[in-house]
Amino acid sequence: MGEPVAQRGVGLGEAHTPTTRVALLASVAALGGFLFGFDTAVINGAVGALETVFTARATTVGLAVSSALLGAAAGAVLAGRLADRHGRTRTMLITSVLFVVSAAGSGAAVSSWDFSAWRLLGGVAIGAASVVAPAYIAEIAPAHLRGRLGSLQQLAIVIGIFAALLNDYAIATAAGSAASPFWLGAAAFRWMFWSAIPPALLYGIGALVIPESPRYLVARGRADEALVVLRGLVGSAARAKLLDIQRTLSSERRPRLADLRGRRGLLPIVWIGVALSMFQQLVGINVIFYYSTVLWQAVGFSERSSLTITVITGVTNIVTTLVAIATVDRVGRRPLLIAGSIGMALTLGAMATVFGTAGVDAAGNPVLRGAEGPVALLAANLYVFCFGASWGPVTWVLLGEMFNNRIRALALSIAAAAQWLANFLVSATFPALKQAGLGTAYGLYTIAAVASLAFVVAFIPETKGKELEEM
Fold first, then answer.
1. pLDDT per position as a tens digit, 78-93
2. Is 351 within 8 Å of 434 (Cβ atoms)?
3. Contact predicate 233/371, CB 8 Å
4. 2-470 in CATH: which number?
C-alpha cells in the first residue's frame, strides 16, 4: 500500500528541473492555504445577511463568525497527529472532504445555531490545512528556497481571502444584496458558501497526485520510497539528503505530547512558536477580513462601497505578500517581523486615534468627517501592507522550519491551535468592542503590535539559510 503513495507524484513534472518540481508540489499543498483563506473570509459578505435572515444579536453573530475558529483550533491539534500517523497527503485528502461537507451545510443552514455547527466543522478543516501545508512544504523544500516556498502558504491564504471577498461582492451585487434571492431562489449569502465546493474538490484531487513527504517516509521505515521522491526534489544530492534525514531520525521514536514538555510546561522553542502564532492574530488583522464590510458601513459607507473597499484591501494583501516572498530569503525572517511590528503599531495607532476622536450618530456609530474617512482608509490599507509583508507570511515560514524533525508536526499543531484560539478571541469580541467604541478596539490591537515588537527582539532567532536537519 505504501509504494503507490510515494510513487504517485513521481511523474508530476518529470520534464522540469527539481526547483520547478518542488515549486509545483508546494503549490498543490498550498491549495489548502487557499481554502483556509477563502473559508475564513467568505463570512465577510454574509454577516449582515445572517443578522437579517436569522434575526441574530451581536453575540450570536460573533459566535457564528468565530465558530469556525474554535473548530480550527481542534483541527490544528488533530492534524499533527494525523500527519504523523497517516502521512501529509492523506491528511490533505481528509481535509478536502471536510471543506466540501462544511461548505454544503453552511449554505443550507436554517438557523444561526446549525450554521455555527457547520462552520465549526469547516474550522476543523481550516485548522488541519494550517498545519499540514507548511509542514509538507518545509519538508520538501531545500534551504535556499524554503522561505519563498513557505511563503506560498500565506500567498495562497491571501489569494483565497481575495477570492472570497470578490466572490461575495459579485454575488451580492448581482442579487441586489446578500440577503436577496439569487440562483434557484436561494439567498445570495448561501451561494457565497457553496462557492467553496469546487476548490475543495480540486484540493482533494491534488492530494491524490503529489508524493508523500520524504521525511515522513523515512520516519515510517520506507527509505527506498523516500529516495525516489528525493531524486525528484534534489536530483543527484538525493542519497546524501536521505542519509541526513536518516541520521536525524534514526534514534527517534514517534512524537508524543511528552516530547514537547520542558521545565515550564513546554519546551522553550514550543512556547516561542505559540507566542509567535498568537501575536499574529492579537494585532487584529482578521477584524479587517471578517468584519470590514459591516465596519465600513458602520462609519457611513454603503454596502456596495464597503464591499468595494474590502476587495481593494484584499488586493493590497496579495501585493504585499508577493513583496514578502521576494525578500524573505534575502532580508531574513527577523528583520521583516521587526519592520512589520513597527508599521502595524503606527497604522493601528492612527486608526485608534481617528475612531476614538470621531463623533457618533444616534446608533453610537462613529461619524467620520472631512479628512477622517480617507485617513482611516489609508491607515487600514497601510496596516494590511505592513502585516502582509511581514507577520502574515513570515509566521508560517518560521512555524514550518523552527522545530526539529522529531517534533515538527506536533509542535506546529500546538502553535497553530494557539493561533486559532487567539483568532477566536479577537473575532468573537469585536462585535461587542465595536459597540463599545472602535477607538478602544484598535487601541487594544495597537498595544498588541507594540508587544509583538518586544517579543521578536527578545526571542525570535534567525533561521534563514539553515537546513531543517540543523534546527
1. 887 788 888 888 999 9
2. no
3. no
4. 1.20.1250.20
